[in-house]
Amino acid sequence: MEPPKVQQPGEGGLNVTLTIRLLMHGKEVGSIIGKKGETVKKMREEVSASGARINISEGNCPERIVTITGPTDAIFKAFAMIAYKFEEDIINSMSNSPATSKPPVTLRLVVPASQCGSLIGKGGSKIKEMRESTGAQVQVAGDMLPNSTERAVTISGAPEAIIQCVKQICVVMLESPPKGATIPYRPKPASTPIIFSGGQAYTIQGQYAIPHPDQLTKLHQLAMQQTPFNPLGQTTPAFPGLDASNQASTHELTIPNDLIGCIIGRQGTKINEIRQMSGAQIKIANAMEGSSERQITITGTPANISLAQYLINARFRDVAAMWNDPSSMTTS
After folding, report:
1. What confidence score (pLDDT) does residue 195 get?
2. What is the pLDDT of residue 22?
């Protein structure tokens, strides 16, 4: 089925260059790429004549980012090809299904959160207008995508409705540019198993265990310094000193400079969580010139201190498990 020619919106059209990002699952990306890359090659050839580019993010990820950059008319043409390809997939899947009603085509845009207010409009007026004028369903996610300042905007409907809706969204995005810096969403790669042996960290790649960087080994060693919680129902106190006096005391930890960020978290979120959960006061000393370590001082009852230590070491274990996505080390 050949998609209809897409007209540019507005009087005289939008003679500008835009970048639109789409979030797709692996199966959707596979449909766009096609057998031996034939489908995406054909799409690229058709839109490149109009000065547009289609790029698909690399990586072994459950989700991928498809970026379309170029003049607006070429972007709409690319969206038309993608929407009609997805509709073709739906029709083919229904041939072996008892379902009688055809589900809508669904696309997910990735939009800077600072522009989402303009897409929604005052009291939801703009998004309501888009729904009514195009016949497409539009939903703007309330939460930002992980480790980013972007939100998902989901559009569902017939291909023609989706294309008209994308046109209107592009107009809004041009009229209301992003405010401030945008941290783009990067899908996390599928996790690779990590094992620890003899104080060294290894990742499993195929049939081989590959030594991991020294930083991950440091994380593991620090995490193993604290004994975890005892099982529920055990009479022995879960923490040393749990039944001792509630008199406040102080305990000091030394953490390598290059690992302190994963304890602090973005804008101090992680260290604040540890403070609230443990009830302990936790102070992190400023970096000393020439020193590769930072001092952490924990003050509170023995139980407070033990819980804070446990949570800090649990944080090291969590970061070690997420090592395959280094951006998580500094942004989560």
Report:
1. 55
2. 95
Please give the pLDDT value at position 10.
41
Per residue, what are the HEC states of the chain? CCCCCCCCCCCCCCCCEEEEEEEEEHHHHHHHHCHHHHHHHHHHHHHHCCCCEEEECCCCCCEEEEEEEEEHHHHHHHHHHHHHHHHHHHHHHHCCCCCCCCCCEEEEEEEEHHHHHHHHCHHHHHHHHHHHHHCCEEEECCCCCCCCCEEEEEEEECHHHHHHHHHHHHHHHHHCCCCCCCCCCCCCCCCCCEEEECCEEEEEECCEEEECCHHHHHHHHHHCCCCCCCCCCCCCCCCCCCCCCCCCEEEEEEEEHHHHHHHHCHHHHHHHHHHHHHCCEEEECCCCCCCCEEEEEEEECHHHHHHHHHHHHHHHHHHHHCCCCCHHHHHC
HSE, CB side, 13 Å, CA atoms: give it for residue 88: 14
Give CA torsion, residues 34, 35, 40, 45, to 10 deg. -140
For the chain of 332 residues, list the mean pLDDT of each consecutive stretch of 10: 41 67 90 89 87 84 89 89 92 76 90 94 94 95 91 95 94 90 83 54 53 54 49 39 59 83 85 84 85 87 81 75 48 40
For 139, the token pair is 């939903």
